[in-house]
Amino acid sequence: MSTPPLLPLEDALRILRDAFPAPATAEVRADRDDPALDLSSMDGAALRASDGVAPRRVLGTRYAGDPPTLEVAPGTCVRIMTGAAVPPGADAVVPVEELEVRGDALVPVRPPRAGENIRPRAGQARAGDLLLPAGEPARAARVGLLAQVGMPVPPLARVKVGVVATGDELNAHPAPHQIRDSNGPMLEALAHALGADVRRLPALPDEPAAVRAFLEDLGDLGILLTSGGVSAGEKDHLPRVLADMGARILFHKIRLKPGKPMLTALLDGRIILGLPGNPVSSYINALMFLPVALAGLQGRRAPEPWKEGLLRAPVPNPGDRPLLHPCRRQGRDLDPLPSRGSADLVRLAQAEAFAWIPEGGLAAGPTRYLDVV
Known about the structure:
Elements: E1 7-8, H1 9-18, E2 28-29, E3 39-40, E4 44-47, E5 56-62, E6 76-80, E7 92-95, E8 99-102, E9 105-108, E10 118-119, E11 130-132, H2 140-148, E12 160-165, H3 183-193, E13 197-200, H4 208-215, E14 223-227, H5 238-244, E15 248-252, E16 254-255, E17 263-267, E18 270-275, H6 279-297, E19 307-311, E20 323-330, E21 333-336, H7 345-350, E22 353-357, E23 365-371
Parallel strand pairs: 1-16, 5-6, 12-13, 12-14, 14-18, 19-21
Antiparallel strand pairs: 2-11, 3-10, 4-6, 4-7, 5-9, 8-9, 15-17, 17-18, 19-23, 20-21, 20-22, 22-23
Helix pairs in contact: 3-6
């Protein structure tokens, strides 16, 4: 039987993004003119442009939030602050920097222009205008717009993320044939840095019954990060257990080095991100896929993670998968670190970025990279 081709990274990310329904957000309409009155866009003096550079007697001062009660007649003006309503009779605002004080009067240093430094009523929207169609992602600016037009603001809650490592070799006081759980704390720190409400759970043994019992009692978790048990070995039980439980396997194994065994599934409305056990693989997969899962559960789209940089030394890649190689970074300049593979937690801890190295390797020059978190 032929082995199915590995899924390219971009396809895997797209599949995960598409697993979430379109945001159930309502259309947003202006409930009144925006702005509701003419507003000053500068600190200065509200006056009549037709008076030219003649001195103006100051009637008073108006601040943002004050009602427009003073009326500007010829030869008068009102001191005004940014965001304040322009008083009746005024049709221009002259900035403080362009005013001279002569006794009790203010004098423009140049002829004012009608309409200058005024945000006109309904300049942004008229009452009833459609501002955003239904189904727009729940970005932060959209929430601000909801508040501006008086619509209910949805409650904001952090996604609950569980982190669990698997493996009989894990022990807090390891014998020579055992290791400490480093992936669990690392993934917990990463999820916390990405804004999740994180819960680190006790490590699981390499037993199918234990894995299934754990998956049947995930409580209020929205995302589960597992580390280990996702490859094709005799003790890699997670793929089989998830399939037996009726989980929807979105993909398993991607064309990336390190990080090939990556598994992603939906189980009872939760996202399961099955990460490899080697720490560099586990970290890179979490760095790529956890932001997408967090964003999807919050009805938004994760920001583009890639940045453009310059590799300052060649990196070989003789394999048949693209490589993410650890680097130090100075601005856009990427200095490759010597790497001993996907178990090299020392280099992972030293890395400030991961450079994209295509199959066949890359000479010094432009490439894209991921910042570490």
